[in-house]
Amino acid sequence: MTNHIIRRQLITSSLVICQIVFAALLTACSDNEHDIEDYPLNYEITEVKASQDIPVGAFLVNAYGDLTNAALWDRLTNPYDASTGEIGPYVKPVLGQYRLVSTNSDDHEDIAHNLGQIAAWAKKAKIDFLITHPIRENAGSSWEKDSYPNNINVEDSIFLNLISGRTDTLGWKNDGSTKYAIQIHTQNISAAMGSNNYTTPLETRADRVFTDSLGGRHTTTQTERLVLFVRSLAKYFKDDTYYKTPDGRPVVIMRQPEELYSTRVDSLYDALRAAMKEVCGMNPYIICTQKSWSPTARLEQVVLAGKPDAITMLNMSNVGAGLYERLYWLDVFINENYKLNHEYLTNHYPAIDFIPSVSNGYSYYVRDGRYNYPDVLPSTDGFRKRCWIAKQNLGRYPMVIIDAWNDYGFGSFIEPTDPNYGNGYGEAYLDIVAKEFKR
Questions:
Q1: Mean pLDDT value of segment 134-149
Q2: In this structure, what are the phi and psi dihedrals at residue 340, rounded to the nearest 5 degrees?
Q3: Where are any strands of DSSP class E within 93-192?
Q4: Complete DSSP assignment for 268-289
Q5: How far apart are CA 157 and CA 119, in angstroms?
Q6: What is the spatial distance between Cα 213 and Cα 210, in angstroms, rounded to a whole number?
Q7: Helix, strand, coil content of the chain in percent (nearest 5)
Q8: DSSP helix/strand/coil, 143
Q9: Beta bridge partners of 59
Q10: Neighbour tally for 189: CB within 10 Å
């Protein structure tokens, strides 16, 4: 049996379930002399206009590994035909099969060109800052406490120097008009330290011995190792190109922070804050990501106890395996999820803000051909509604994050695609972002 036949059967089963639930609701309404109009989720998402300019960030993805994969490229660009199981977005990126990171110096001019074009598009969309792909640790580096020279992944270090404007030998140089913020690959470094399994706390891991550039040996705890890593990142916070909140705090995003298992989350976050401030002289504004559709309460012991400044949701168009029922009232369900999580933070952690995210789609099919994950294909109407949802659920200090700028591997992107190819939309999403979040 082919995959697309299996998928049609899954959809049929989900439709039957929804019909049963809907019939039950109608019966319940009839028995209680209520109309279906009274059902609390029976509402439409309506337009919300921005009463002020809302800061917008957008996640960048290292697109190289995806776009050069021949099978993935085919699933992204092939004509849509559900009857044969071809259910990709059917678009072609304007930049083609491009890359954003590489250690090969021959690639750096192309990477600079790509970043320059992305920066120009971001300005048209009035996006306030680009968020780096998750920055990784160079676990095999030599470390010295005072200079922490080489503990950023080499590819990522090259990328940071380019987007920050520190590299000025290529065709494009950040002149200060493109702001960016660093996203820490928390899962990467916690896995390297062996503390991402929820059974082995960071504090119980064996100390690590490193050799400095002169051959000297240094012993650090795993907590100190993490502190050294964030110190190496904080040197970028002082740059004019780095994005800061209106009160002058550099924004830093921790990706999948729940993977960082610690028995003393509060003191760990205090140490990270202190280390970053020592280097850059400013208190960082820490944003922690939360998995889509997950209740914020689940983060209580592993993240919220550390008192980050804000929580943002990852791509809510990722509805989960087999959960086709979420597609029928997707925007309403996203809105309800945001309201519940926002309310939880307000009631239990009022010092932690809520930052809604906006996406235009998600597809595991593009990633690896899977059919058991429902696809949300790109749609300007759907994207616009999710912008309205975000504006209904802003935190005390309004901010919105777009997930993502160019996540082609998972079918989530607003970056321009060829308008003369397939379902290409040109710069349509750039215009929507500028209109929806700026007065």
A1: 71
A2: -65, -45
A3: 129-131, 180-185
A4: HHHHHHHHHHHHHSS--EEEEE
A5: 19
A6: 10
A7: 40, 15, 45
A8: coil
A9: 131
A10: 25
241 within 8 A of 179, measured Cβ to Cβ? yes
Question: Cα dist. 395→43, 69, 338, 354, 391 in Å?
Answer: 23, 39, 11, 5, 9
d(CA 281, CA 160): 20
What number of CA atoms fall less than 13 Å from residue 355's CA on the CB side? Answer: 27
Whether pLDDT at 242 is above 80: yes
Cβ within 8 Å of residue 121, ≥6 positions away: 415, 416, 427, 430
Classify strands 406-407 and 412-413 as parallel, antiparallel or unpaired. Answer: antiparallel
* Short-list 181, 348, 164, 191, CA closest to 261: 191
- Using the structure block, give the residue that is written with the tokens 């849509």: 80
**What span, in angstroms and rounded, lies between the C-alpha atoms of 115 and 53?**
25
pLDDT for the residue 12: 41
Segment 375-398, tens digit of pLDDT:
999 999 999 999 999 999 999 999
Supply the pTM of this predicted model. 0.90
The first and second tokens of residue 235, run together, are 């040197």
Other residues' Cβ atoms within 10 Å of the Cβ of residue 331: 16
Residue in the structure block whose two tokens are 């404007």:
165
Instruction: Inform me whether the pLDDT recorded for 14 exceeds 50.
Output: no
